Amino acid sequence: MKKLEKLLNKHTETEKFVTKSMDIADQISQFLVEKNWTQKEFARRMGKQESEISKWLSGQHNFTIKTITNIETVFGKNLIWIPQYLAEYVSVEDLTRILKEMKSSKKPRKTNHKIQPSIIENRA
Amino acid sequence: MNQIIIEPYEPFDSNDSESGRRRRRKGFGANLYTIRFIDEEISETDKFIDDYIDDYEEDMAIIAAKMKNIQIRGAKEIYFRAAGSIMDAVMELPEKEQYSKLRLYCLRWTERILILGNGGVKEVRTYQEDDLLYGHVKLLQKLSELLQERIVVDREIQITEDDKLIGNLEFEIDDIF
């Protein structure tokens, strides 16, 4: 087994943490594209320094629930879905359609993420 | 004068997750490369791993996890911190966080091509204040310059449709110090 593979097998929590943090970073990045906001503009709306936003997007930031809530408020969209309440975010029909769209996606270079279509707005 | 070669780098066993393989097939992921001095057997990235894996296990695990994710998601600019100048593609991995001082330097050529170099522990504010880190960055900066020339001007290196580097990947680089 290769050294880094062995290391990650020992540090499974670290790998999951980085993966989750990169998931969130990718989603924020996608929201920025949808809103046509720069990181600077996002920082201004969040009342943060741009360097802080860079850390959030680096894929190793330990987000607090408060930060996630503030980000969701600024974007007006959910960043994280809780499975137990998924039905409140999106109907089964829409979810089925989204999954079908994701599976048949043939243009990954243009659209890296398809899981946040416009129909899924903030529950509030 | 040093002779170095850019080589494909596979730091993980191929038995990654099914979803990871699917994403890579769809073209999201990055191809990893490393650099090796021709008269040495071990690559610069493997030297970095060997030098720090025992004393900085947790920090190395973060870098490894990012590398693995980059192979699946692509080398997006947001995951890195610019380390060189605006004229080159030298980046630092991971982005500065207080809990991690270990840095791996790399050339983020495109979102699909990442060339990993060597690194070290950054105890100083800037890499220029540390000879070891400075040497690693400078080597990548020179390589960045030569690679640009060989891809754009001389056309001795081509980038394939699946984002692989082909052609003459051997370079002669002046001594750093």
Brief digest:
Chain A is mainly α and 124 residues long.
Count of strand segments of chain A? 0
Fraction of helical residues of chain B: 25-40%
Number of E-state strands of chain B: 9
**Tally of structural domains of chain A:** 2
Approximate shape of chain A:
globular
Low-confidence stretches of chain B: none
Q: Look at the structure and give the mean pLDDT of chain B.
A: 86
Describe the structure.
Chain A is mostly helical. Chain A folds into 2 domains: 3-78, Orthogonal Bundle (434 Repressor (Amino-terminal Domain)), CATH 1.10.260.40; 81-124, no CATH class. Chain A is 60% helix and 0% strand. Chain A has helices at 3-10, 12-35, 39-46, 50-57, 65-75, 86-89, 92-103. In chain A, helix 3 packs across helix 4. Chain A is globular, with a radius of gyration of 16 Å. Chain B is an alpha+beta fold and 177 residues long. Chain B has one domain. Chain B has 4 helices and 9 strands, in the order βαβααββββαβββ. Chain B has helices spanning 18-25, 44-52, 57-73, 131-153, and strands spanning 2-8, 31-37, 81-82, 90-93, 102-110, 113-121, 157-159, 165-167, 170-173. In chain B, the strands form 2 sheets. A 7-stranded mixed sheet of chain B has the order 3-4-5-6-2-1-9. The longest helix of chain B has 23 residues, at 131-153. Chain B is globular and about 40 Å long. Chain A binds chain B through residues 1-5, 7-8, 10-11, 14-15, 17-19, 22, 25-26, 29, 54-55, 57-61, 105, 108-109, 112, and chain B through 10-13, 23, 26-28, 49-50, 53, 57-58, 60-62, 64-69, 73-74, 76, 78-81, 94-97, 100.
